[in-house]
């Protein structure tokens, strides 16, 4: 645990630096606000609809694939570190796991979930 | 025990301060270098006026940024909007904790160093999403969504490429991975993984030809469209520091870290070799940016899922089989 206290210190230090810069600039910088300036930037037009519009379902699909494959990668890291100790059993086990995953990828591919321009 | 702990703490504190100063100076230098490289590639000079060959230009720009107004749009979710630049800046500094600059020149040589860097570098995506969402601007939101999709897509081949290096050394400790390359760099043993890593790292840092999230010609500035002054500056600093980090990780994992080529150090200390290789890689990343056109978004996603992912899976399987049976 004590190994990771440095990560915490670094995070606090970084936050303090970034916060310090922002505080400094808000003290130095000008503050002239009028209503047109505070509108969202839209190339000079007034925004007429909310920007929180619906976006393509593809993005949700990508997020789902990411969860699946990222967990697979995280699962493989301990295996990689213990590759010698696990021996042939570990090797075959991981190959079966990767094969199942590859079949999943082929399935998703064949179903056309990876086609962006459909 | 007591004095050992005290000296350890002093080492950590000094290291953190050096890292903080180095990361800022490095980012300023890289911005200048980028403009110079861009200029010379396009047969211009780039910045020439402030200091010799414009070396002080980015310092002047930085001072100008500090003196600018921080604009928060009225419709923005101001809490997230304010916190996003700080959030994007925090994880990039953590990566410096485990970067092996030399054999004994590392703040904290953790046994999970490689994982730590990737865990924290992924966090900056959250900050980008928070910033783009909070701005309440169409272009910012589109840029943020694209950025997240791109980053998660390229994260997986990146992790799998690193996995094949971890397989070869059976360690996630940077010092052990670099020590294993004292004769032959891993780029020669793992050329496919090395190439995948470099391409994915370029995409992860949102650099051209993968700079879809901030494609100027269609999205103005992407997720930081509404940011001004030093808030924009923090995004900028984080981007350039991220570039340094991915180059340093690539150097440590594939280009032999502090070792000279094929075990010859030519009398140069390790840190010189390390920084030399990092800056050569950074130059290559800039060179790529100013040479290749931007890819389209569907091409970008297809390239990740249909080329990089199968290739990195195959590379992993082949690596494991070769290690097992040869």
Number of helices of chain B: 12
- How far is the first residue's CA from the last residue's CA of chain A? 49 Å
| Beta-strand content of chain A | under 5%
The main sheet of chain A comes to: none
Query: How much is the radius of gyration of chain A in Å?
Result: 25 Å
What is the H/E string of chain B?
HHHHHHHHHHHH
Total count of domains of chain A: 1
Q: What structural class do helix, strand and pairing data of chain B support?
A: mainly alpha
Output mean pLDDT of chain A. 80
What is the CATH C-level name of chain A? Mainly Alpha
In the predicted model, the low-confidence regions of chain B spanning at least 5 consecutive residues are: none
CATH superfamily of chain A: NADH:ubiquinone/plastoquinone oxidoreductase, chain 3
Explained architecture:
The complex is a heterodimer of chains A (118) and B (326). In chain A, 64% of the residues lie in helices and 0% in strands. Chain A is mainly alpha-helical and 118 residues long. Chain A is flat and about 70 Å long. Chain B has one domain. Chain B is 69% helix and 0% strand. Chain B contains 12 helices and no strands. In chain B, helix 2 crosses helix 10, helix 5 (138-169) packs antiparallel against helix 8 (191-204) and helix 8 packs antiparallel against helix 10 (229-254). The longest helix of chain B has 40 residues, at 2-41. Chains A and B meet through helix 1, helix 2 and helix 3 of A and helix 1, helix 3, helix 5, helix 10 and helix 12 of B.
Give the key terms.
heterodimer; A: 118 residues; mainly alpha; Methane Monooxygenase Hydroxylase, Chain G, domain 1; flat; B: 326 residues; 12 helices; 0% strand; globular
């Amino acid at each position: 645990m004590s190994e990771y206290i440095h990560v915490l210190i670094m995070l606090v230090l970084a936050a303090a630096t970034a916060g310090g810069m922002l505080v400094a600039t808000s003290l130095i910088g000008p503050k002239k606000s009028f209503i047109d300036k505070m509108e969202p930037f839209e190339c000079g037009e007034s925004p007429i609809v909310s920007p929180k519009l619906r976006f393509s379902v593809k993005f949700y699909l990508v997020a789902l694939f990411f969860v699946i494959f990222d967990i697979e990668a995280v699962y493989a890291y301990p295996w990689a570190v213990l590759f010698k100790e696990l021996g042939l059993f570990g090797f075959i086990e991981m190959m079966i796991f990767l094969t199942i995953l590859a079949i999943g990828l082929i399935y998703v591919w064949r179903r056309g979930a990876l086609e962006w321009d459909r | 025990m007591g004095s050992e702990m005290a000296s350890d703490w002093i080492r950590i504190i000094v290291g953190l301060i050096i890292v903080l100063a180095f990361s800022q100076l490095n980012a300023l230098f890289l911005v200048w270098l980028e403009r110079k490289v861009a200029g010379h590639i396009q047969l211009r000079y780039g910045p020439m006026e402030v200091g010799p060959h414009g070396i002080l230009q980015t310092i002047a720009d930085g001072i100008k940024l500090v003196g600018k107004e921080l604009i928060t749009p009225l419709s923005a979710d101001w809490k997230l909007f304010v916190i996003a630049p700080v959030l994007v800046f925090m994880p990039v500094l953590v990566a410096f904790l485990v970067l092996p600059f030399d054999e004994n020149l590392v703040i904290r040589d953790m046994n999970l160093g490689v994982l730590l860097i990737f865990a924290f570098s992924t966090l900056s995506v959250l900050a980008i999403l928070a910033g783009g969402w909070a701005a309440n601007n169409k272009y910012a939101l589109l840029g943020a969504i694209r950025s997240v999709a791109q980053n998660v897509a390229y994260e997986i081949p990146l992790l799998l490429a690193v996995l094949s290096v971890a397989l070869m050394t059976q360690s996630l400790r940077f010092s052990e991975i670099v020590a294993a390359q004292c004769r032959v760099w891993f780029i020669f043993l793992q050329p496919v993984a090395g190439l995948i890593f470099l391409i994915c790292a370029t995409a992860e840092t949102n650099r051209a030809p993968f700079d879809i999230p901030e494609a100027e010609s269609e999205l103005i500035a992407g997720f930081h469209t509404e940011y001004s002054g030093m808030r924009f500056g923090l995004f900028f600093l984080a981007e350039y520091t991220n570039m340094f980090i991915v180059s340093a990780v690539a150097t440590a994992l594939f280009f032999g870290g502090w070792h000279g080529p094929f075990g010859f150090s030519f009398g140069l200390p390790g840190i010189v070799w390390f920084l030399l290789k990092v800056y050569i890689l950074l130059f290559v990343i800039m060179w790529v940016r100013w040479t290749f056109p931007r890819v389209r978004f569907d091409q970008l996603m297809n390239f990740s899922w249909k080329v990089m992912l199968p290739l990195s899976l195959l590379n992993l399987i082949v690596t494991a089989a070769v290690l097992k049976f040869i």
